[in-house]
Design a protein that fits this description.
single chain, about 160 residues, alpha+beta, Thiol Ester Dehydrase, Chain A, six-stranded antiparallel sheet, 6 strands
Length: about 160
């Protein structure tokens, strides 16, 4: 006779943290993230930066999925610049730092950096906009704007 026990609880998913006016999100470079030479493939930085931005919204209490399901709209990247400065390699621990550099009613400019220790590996500047389900720009919900404003103007906890 087989007894079925409940599966073990799922481990907690990695979460970023908000430190004043910046969001910190850690990733590790896995084999699947690298190219033939063992260097992190350039497209993975886009994924890591996107995960960090999504986590930032979650930390701010912004429910993107609910907004989409309610027909309010969604965030979309409108402009992106990316520089590669130093390679990340297999098993490196990478810290993604995100800041909001300009906040408007329907858009936000952000700066993101990927660090290994003190070494800057890549940085990105981007503009994200809130768009209606038809893809037209629209004001983000007022409470979202208020949450971003609090984030942008927060004092860092670091010395």
């Amino acid at each position: 006779m087989h007894t079925h026990s409940a599966p073990p609880p799922a481990p907690a998913l990695p979460d970023g943290v908000i430190d004043g006016d910046r969001h910190l999100y850690a990733v590790r470079v896995y084999y699947e993230d690298t190219d033939l030479s063992g260097v992190a493939y350039h497209a993975n930085y886009l994924r890591w930066f996107e995960r960090a931005r999504s986590d930032l919204l979650r930390r701010l209490g912004i429910d993107q999925r609910a907004a989409v399901e309610a027909g309010e709209g969604a965030w979309a990247v409108a402009d992106l610049g990316l520089r590669f400065l130093s390679p990340a390699r297999l098993d490196d621990d990478v810290l993604i730092v995100t800041r909001c550099t300009e906040l408007r009613a329907a858009s936000c400019r952000m700066a993101q950096q990927a660090f290994i220790g003190e070494t800057l590996c890549a940085d990105a500047t981007l503009r994200v906009g809130f768009v209606s389900p038809s893809g037209r720009p629209r004001r983000q919900p007022a409470d979202w704007h208020a949450r971003f404003t609090a984030f942008v103007t927060a004092q860092p906890a670091r010395p």
